[in-house]
Amino acid sequence: MTDHSADPGFEEAARPPRSQWRDVWDQFKTHKGALLGAGFFLFVVVAVMIGPWLWPIPYDAIDIRARNQGPSLAHPFGTDQLGRDMLARMLKGGQTSVAVGIAAMALSLFFGTLVGVLAGYFKRLDGPLMRFTDLFLALPLLPLLLVIIMLFRDPLRAAFGPETGIFILIVFVIGITSWMQTARIVRGDVLALKEREFVLAARSIGTPDRRMITRHLLPNVLSPIMVSATLGIANAIITESALSFLGLGFPSDFPTWGRLLFDATDYLQQYPERVIWPGLAISLTVLAVNYIGDGLRDALDPRIRGR
Amino acid sequence: MLNYTIRRLLLAIPTLLFIALVIFLLLELAPGDPMANVPLTVPPEVKEKMRIALGLDQPTHVRFLRWLQQFFWVEPLHMLDTLFGTSWAEGQQRIISWQSRSPVMDIVWQRMPQTLWVVGLSYVLGALIAVPVGVISAYRQYSFIDQLGTFISMIGFSVPTFFTGVLMIVIFSVHLGWFPSIYDTTLVVNDWESFTKQIRQMIMPVSVLALYNAAQISRFMRASMLDNLNQDYVRTARAKGLREKTVVLVHVLRNSMIPVVTVIALGVPQVFGGAIITEQVFKVNGLGQLLITAIQANDLPMVQTLTFIFAILIVVFNLIADLLYGVLDPRIRYD
């Protein structure tokens, strides 16, 4: 994948070989929005991971005398109607929201890549798998999400406890309803790659299918997969908050950004500033992730890279 | 073309049947009991009779077939009856909501106008904003206007509609008091005053959805314009001395609209889905709100019917998008 064989000139040959990922990073750096987005996303992830340990007030500590306060030194984001500290709840909520986003993205990437590679590589499976994908694309997803959550909330809550049960359910549900685009892109790329000479060469030395896929095909479809990964995180975070906002997500004593926003809308007339924090957190995180995706798409495209 | 249309329509039938089956089987697992709302004083044998009256004693496949028959046969007949005053559907069981014990389709028809007005208008508005924005962004690529357009559309699809909606309520209803925060569906538009009232209550939900839609469509418009601006035929058009306005607005725009029109068609069903959230924010009692209340009340016939209507929308608009592509682009022939 390195570029040093392209031009046999002396200058080129004298330079140390550069890895592909270094080129990608160099191109990524030139995209200001993407760099800013990556920095912000990293900041959010680190903040929600270690924030709850650093911030002394627990997210569920009720202090009824200090309820409905505005921002102050003790409570930088104010407190809610039960006097719970909003900063602690935001950090805890972010932990859930980001975890749901990443886990659901991973699940949908796994499904999407699996279906895409199988459909693209094995001709026999192509027809049925793609019909299956089309069928999923024709399902009304948001209504079905709501229905599935309504149906399986109670059994899973009984089986795994209220928080883990809902977490598994939401991640699973978002994962199995968002893999279709990845599958289509991966299938298209695999179909094109299969016609290339290096695949023929690998086949002629008797590479088995399994190694053909893991060694030759997967590394080459990595870039579209990475781009859909970033879009997947953004999509999963928005879907999770939408579900929480509709009252069908996590239980109310278990904060997520969407849930906090939903709870705050009840007090919209009196304390309008309380909806701002969770809403801003969702929007900025998703915006950052989208910018990362934008930069990554440019950086991973060899036609743009190096211009 | 006709062959292709017929083939696609025939293919849509098993797809829709399968989707109906999936939804039905999913709902079959529901723990809810339609008799849960009946008072406890009603004796169990009466409850059992009510259950039989609803057809709940039948096995699953019989109930599924009955639902299909009701949806595809009885309801259209009933529609014809109300239109022409005939009585074909007389005495036939319609799909009954467990919540209100009234026919599901009657409620759907009541809720339809609100959704269509808010969602439809916002989609049209979004497309009307998106096309010029996309054209200008592409024509002046990397200029200040392009950067601004890109940034606004990034915001448009990063900020979820339930936040923009709530934010608008905070600013325009709570602080400024310009618009009402709750959509009044009982409002009858019959004079100028009620008309302005209707406009005022529609501004916020429509603009929230329009921003979201415009963000999506303008990106496609820009990309499609960029693809076309470097084509040879554009150079030819310029070389033969056409004015720049003609080149861009007639030659390039018409060709770039082809993929955008199909994207607009494909987006219609998603918009209905997305409107579920916006309707919840602004308390518009449209189809989305109906679905949410039905889900919360365990009203399975209503959920089944509504979800299936959304599925029909998706399948139909996919078909429309594909056909439009064939009509608009002479390079694509389906036969």
Succession of helices and strands of chain A: HHHHHHHHHHHHH
Q: How large a portion of the residues of chain B is in β-strands, by DSSP E?
A: under 5%
Number of strands of chain B: 0
The radius of gyration over CA of chain A amounts to 23 Å
Distance between the termini of chain A: 18 Å
Strand content of chain A: under 5%
Give the CA-CA distance, first to last residue of chain B: 6 Å
Number of strands of chain A: 0
Helix content of chain B: over 70%
Provide the low-confidence segments of chain A as ranges: none
Nearest-integer average pLDDT of chain B: 82
Label the overall shape of chain A.
Answer: globular
Instruction: Sketch the major β-sheet of chain B.
Output: none
**Anisotropy-based shape of chain B:** globular
> Which range best describes the helical content of chain A: under 10%, 10-25%, 25-40%, 40-55%, 55-70% or over 70%?
over 70%
Q: Count the DSSP helices of chain B.
A: 11
Could you walk me through the main structural features you see in this protein, from its secondary elements to its overall organization?
- The complex is a heterodimer of chains A (307) and B (335).
- With 307 residues, chain A is mainly alpha-helical.
- Chain A has 13 helices and no strands.
- The longest helix of chain A is centred in the middle third of the chain and has 36 residues, at 86-121.
- In chain A, 42% of the residues are buried.
- Chain B is an all-alpha fold.
- Chain B has a domain at 111-296: MetI-like fold.
- Chain B has eleven helices and no strands.
- The longest helix of chain B is centred in the last third of the chain and has 39 residues, at 244-282.
- Chain B is globular and about 85 Å long.
- The model of chain B has no long low-confidence stretch (mean pLDDT 82).
- Chain A binds chain B through residues 33, 134-135, 137-144, 146-148, 150-151, 154, 234, 238, 241-242, 245-248, 258, 261, 265, 268-269, 272, 275-276, 279, 282-283, 286-287, 290-291, 294, and chain B through 15, 18-19, 22-23, 26-27, 29-31, 154-155, 157-160, 162-163, 166-167, 169-170, 174-175, 181, 269, 273-274, 276-277, 280-281, 291-292, 295-296, 298, 303, 306-307, 310-311, 313-315, 318.
